[in-house]
From TrEMBL:
<dbReference type="GO" id="GO:0005886">
    <property type="term" value="C:plasma membrane"/>
</dbReference>
<feature type="transmembrane region" description="Helical">
    <location>
        <begin position="194"/>
        <end position="215"/>
    </location>
</feature>
<feature type="transmembrane region" description="Helical">
    <location>
        <begin position="99"/>
        <end position="115"/>
    </location>
</feature>
<protein>
    <recommendedName>
        <fullName>Probable membrane transporter protein</fullName>
    </recommendedName>
</protein>
<feature type="transmembrane region" description="Helical">
    <location>
        <begin position="73"/>
        <end position="92"/>
    </location>
</feature>
<keyword id="KW-0472">Membrane</keyword>
<dbReference type="InterPro" id="IPR051598">
    <property type="entry name" value="TSUP/Inactive_protease-like"/>
</dbReference>
<dbReference type="InterPro" id="IPR002781">
    <property type="entry name" value="TM_pro_TauE-like"/>
</dbReference>
<keyword id="KW-0812">Transmembrane</keyword>
<feature type="transmembrane region" description="Helical">
    <location>
        <begin position="169"/>
        <end position="188"/>
    </location>
</feature>
<keyword id="KW-1133">Transmembrane helix</keyword>
<feature type="transmembrane region" description="Helical">
    <location>
        <begin position="135"/>
        <end position="157"/>
    </location>
</feature>
<keyword id="KW-1003">Cell membrane</keyword>
<dbReference type="Pfam" id="PF01925">
    <property type="entry name" value="TauE"/>
</dbReference>
<comment type="similarity">
    <text>Belongs to the 4-toluene sulfonate uptake permease (TSUP) (TC 2.A.102) family.</text>
</comment>
<feature type="transmembrane region" description="Helical">
    <location>
        <begin position="6"/>
        <end position="32"/>
    </location>
</feature>
Length: 243
C-alpha cells in the first residue's frame, strides 16, 4: 500500500511541478510523514525528477517549442550546479538551506509583483554572466534541497522574456540537469532506497505527461497567479515544517 501512495504522490507532485514548479512541497513532506529518511526522500525525488523532467521536455521539444541548442545552453550550468549541490549537502545544515529557500522564494514573489514580465515575450534564450550565475545557483540549490527550484526557474525565464510553454520546456531540462547531477552523488553515497524511488518514479513520469499537456492549454493570464499561489504555499510549508 505504501508504494501505491508513492505513485499517487509522484503523479500529483509532477502535475503541479510541470505547470509552475513546487512539486517538492507535496512529495518531500509526504515522504517524510511516511517515515522515509530525509536523505533517501530527497534522493528519490532527484532520481524520479531526472526521468520525469526529461520526459516532459521531450514532449515539448516534439512540438518544436524549444530547441536542442537552447537545451544545451541550460544543461552545463544546471548540471554543474546539481553536482555541486549534492556535494555541499553534507556541509550546509538543513536550517541554513531553509533560510536560503525562504529568502529566494520571498524575493521571487516580490519581483513577480514589481516586474512587468508575464510570459508575453518570445525571446530566444540568451545566457550572460549574470543570469548564468543565477541558473547555476538554482541548480546548486536544487542539488542540496530542492523544493521551489522549478518555481524559481520559471520566474527567471519569465524575466528573460520567454513565453510560458517554452519556459516550461526549458525549466524541465534545467531540472533534469540539476537532478541528474545530484542523483549521481546520492547514488554514489548509498542514500537511495530503490523500491521507494521506483514507485515515486512511476507516478512522476505519469504526472509530468499530464502536466505538460495541461500546460499547452493553460491561458497565460493564469500563469502568474498560479506561480504566486505555489510560491506562498512553498513558503508556508517550509516555515511551518521548521518551527
Amino acid at each position: 500500500m505504501e508504494y501505491i501512495w508513492l505513485v499517487i504522490i509522484g503523479l500529483i507532485a509532477n502535475v503541479l511541478g510541470t505547470l509552475a514548479g513546487g512539486g517538492g512541497l507535496i512529495s518531500l513532506p509526504a515522504m517524510l510523514v511516511m517515515g522515509i529518511p530525509v536523505h533517501s526522500a530527497i534522493g528519490a525525488n532527484k532520481v524520479s525528477n531526472t526521468v520525469s523532467s526529461l520526459s516532459s521536455f521531450i514532449v515539448i521539444y516534439k512540438y518544436k517549442e524549444v530547441t536542442v541548442k537552447e537545451a544545451m545552453i541550460m544543461m552545463p550550468l544546471c548540471l554543474g550546479g546539481g553536482i555541486a549541490g549534492g556535494l555541499v549537502a553534507s556541509v550546509l545544515t538543513e536550517s541554513t538551506m531553509t533560510i536560503i529557500a525562504v529568502v529566494l522564494l520571498s524575493f521571487a514573489l516580490l519581483t513577480s509583483f514589481l516586474g512587468s514580465s508575464d510570459f508575453n515575450g518570445n525571446r530566444p534564450l540568451v545566457v550572460n554572466k549574470k543570469n548564468g550565475v543565477t541558473l547555476f545557483g538554482i541548480g546548486l540549490y536544487d542539488g542540496v534541497f530542492g523544493p521551489g527550484s522549478g518555481t524559481l526557474m520559471m520566474y527567471v525565464l519569465s524575466h528573460l522574456g520567454i513565453s510560458y510553454i517554452r519556459a516550461v520546456g526549458l525549466a524541465r531540462i534545467a531540472i533534469f540537469s540539476s537532478c541528474f547531477g545530484a542523483s549521481i552523488t546520492y547514488i554514489a553515497t548509498g542514500k537511495i532506497m530503490w523500491a521507494v524511488t521506483i514507485a515515486l518514479l512511476i507516478g512522476s513520469v505519469s504526472g509530468a505527461q499530464i502536466g505538460v499537456h495541461l500546460a499547452r492549454k493553460l491561458k497565460k493570464e493564469y500563469v502568474k497567479p498560479l506561480l504566486r499561489i505555489v510560491t506562498v504555499a512553498l513558503l508556508i510549508q517550509i516555515i511551518v515544517s521548521n518551527i
